[in-house]
């Protein structure tokens, strides 16, 4: 069977893959395909559709820099609107026609002789491509907890990434495991329907108030007619979020530390104003610093625990039975529905999401584990020619995925333009440049909340299994964009 040949293969049709595709088109590369295991585009915004799903970054900021959306209904828009935005952008930039759905990529191997990647698909087909770009996201491999007895539960089990829209929760006795950002959005919705709701919390989360509001029709008209007005609002929300990241994560110096304490004080006050019972407040109080784990926003989360039919169980789960959960304190709670808001497996299943084998047989997942998790500028890895890994260690800028995408698109722009200018066929990051970048990230992270703060009990996915906080790129969006626009081209071997 002859293999189909492409200039580029992108794995993942979420916002990362769509952005990479738009960038390829800008550079005149049209012979590419975007592969996705799902039956539609949008990545996490296609997969997730649980009740209450909304973005937790203001939507004025949660969009591509080059494609503001004047139609957002409110400051923190719903999941359905964001999925619509993904559809609209894919159509406007004509990238949907490049997409192949229900296509699972099993792995990719660099073919030295052909100076090309061989991309293996489930079902046995192989594609050949000059460039390989993986845009598999950070939160794409659902985590199902390994709790004693869970497979023997005879009621309805729903993971938040596979929400059953047809299942009626009204009047049901529901248990939800997890209190991450997803659960914080979902719990108030479940409480509205359930006869009884028990929330199984292992680690409390920092929750701050959500300053949300609807955009009036007049505001939307203004955004449509005067795009600069929306850009101005974006500048405000961008800067607020940069500040928030600086306070919450980078935590630099005495001022950073004081402000970090100030942010946790806001959450404390929010708890105090929402809940009168000091014991309940105490159980919901995190025992690690603000920022160690992604904090979240909600005006209803704390208050919902004051309802008589909503219970917080924080003693841990001993076992699940056919029709109940038994907690470590001996409480047995009969349930009809078990909701798993247990998040994602970031490190084991996602770095990388598929097997990638580069030059001289270097296996990316093995190499990351044998050495350290690393990727130059969050995109390139030595021994992996013509490959960009967009979901890499030290890639994600923090709260807003689109900022990450913006610097990655600019990186592609600078790199591919040089490859074209030289009439070259391959690029590969040098080991020296990669090591210098890793050393710099290690030094910067040394001054972040992850290192100087108290994060020991946070169980945060920002930390890899060796305990190193290698997920976030510890710098401002402005600095990352500047670096993407002027990194030394000699950092790459271009031949
Ligand atoms: P998560 O933050 O990883 O939370 C998973 C929850 O499940 C945690 O509370 C965890 O407890 C609990 N858990 C996992 N295994 C467990 C076990 N065996 N026993 C008991 N509890 C267990 O996942 P998430 O809530 O889905 O959120 C993931 C990320 O998605 C967020 O941080 C955010 O970045 C993103 N998100 C974004 C939005 C948005 O609007 N943009 C909305 C939702 C989610 P431990 O903490 O103790 O491990």
UniProtKB/TrEMBL annotation:
InterPro entries: FAD-bind_Monooxygenase_sf (IPR051209), FAD/NAD-bd_sf (IPR036188)
Superkingdom: Bacteria
Pfam family, one: Pyr_redox_3
Gene3D superfamilies xref list: FAD/NAD(P)-binding domain
Protein name per its UniProtKB record: Putative flavoprotein involved in K+ transport
Species of provenance: Mycolicibacterium rhodesiae (strain NBB3)
């Amino acid at each position: 069977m002859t293999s189909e040949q492409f200039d580029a293969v992108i794995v993942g049709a979420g916002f990362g893959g769509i952005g990479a595709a738009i960038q390829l088109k800008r550079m005149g590369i049209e012979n590419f395909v975007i592969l996705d295991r799902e039956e539609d585009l949008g990545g996490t915004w296609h997969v997730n559709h649980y009740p209450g799903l909304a973005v937790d970054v203001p939507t004025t900021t949660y969009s591509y820099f080059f494609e503001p959306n004047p139609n957002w209904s409110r400051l923190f828009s719903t999941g359905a609107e964001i999925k619509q935005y993904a559809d609209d952008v894919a159509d406007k930039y004509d990238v949907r026609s490049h997409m192949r759905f229900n296509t699972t990529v099993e792995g990719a191997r660099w073919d030295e002789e052909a100076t090309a990647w061989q991309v293996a698909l489930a079902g046995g087909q192989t594609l050949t491509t000059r460039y390989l770009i993986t845009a598999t996201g950070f939160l794409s491999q659902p985590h199902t907890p390994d709790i004693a007895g869970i497979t023997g539960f005879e009621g309805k089990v729903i993971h938040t990434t596979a929400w059953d829209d047809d299942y009626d929760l009204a009047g049901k006795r529901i248990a939800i495991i997890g209190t991450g950002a997803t659960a914080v959005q979902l719990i108030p919705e479940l409480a509205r329907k359930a006869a009884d709701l028990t929330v199984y919390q292992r680690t409390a989360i920092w929750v701050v108030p959500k300053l949300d509001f609807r955009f009036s029709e007049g505001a939307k008209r203004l955004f449509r007619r005067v795009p600069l007005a929306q850009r101005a609002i974006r500048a405000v929300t961008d800067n607020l979020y940069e500040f928030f990241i600086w306070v919450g994560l980078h935590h630099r110096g005495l001022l950073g530390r004081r402000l970090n304490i100030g942010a946790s004080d806001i959450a404390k006050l929010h708890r105090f104003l929402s809940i009168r019972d000091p014991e309940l407040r105490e159980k919901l109080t995190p025992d690690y610093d603000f920022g160690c784990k992604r904090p979240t926003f909600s005006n209803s989360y704390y208050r919902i625990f004051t309802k008589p039919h909503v219970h917080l169980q924080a003693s841990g789960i001993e076992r699940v039975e056919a029709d109940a959960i038994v907690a470590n304190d001996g409480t047995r709670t009969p349930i009809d529905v078990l909701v798993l808001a247990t998040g994602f497996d970031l490190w084991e299943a996602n770095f990388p999401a598929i097997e990638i084998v580069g030059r001289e047989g270097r296996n990316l997942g093995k190499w990351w584990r044998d050495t350290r998790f690393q990727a130059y500028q969050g995109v390139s890895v030595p021994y992996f020619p013509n490959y960009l890994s967009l979901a890499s260690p030290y890639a994600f800028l923090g709260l807003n995925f689109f900022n990450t995408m913006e610097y990655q698109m600019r990186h592609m722009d600078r790199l591919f333009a040089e490859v074209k200018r030289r009439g070259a066929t391959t690029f590969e990051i040098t080991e020296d440049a990669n090591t210098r970048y890793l050393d710099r990230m290690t030094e910067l992270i040394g001054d972040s909340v992850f290192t100087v703060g108290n994060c020991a009990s946070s169980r945060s996915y920002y930390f890899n299994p060796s305990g190193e906080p290698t997920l976030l790129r510890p710098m401002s969006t402005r600095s990352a964009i500047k670096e993407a626009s002027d990194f030394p081209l000699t950092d790459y071997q271009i031949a």
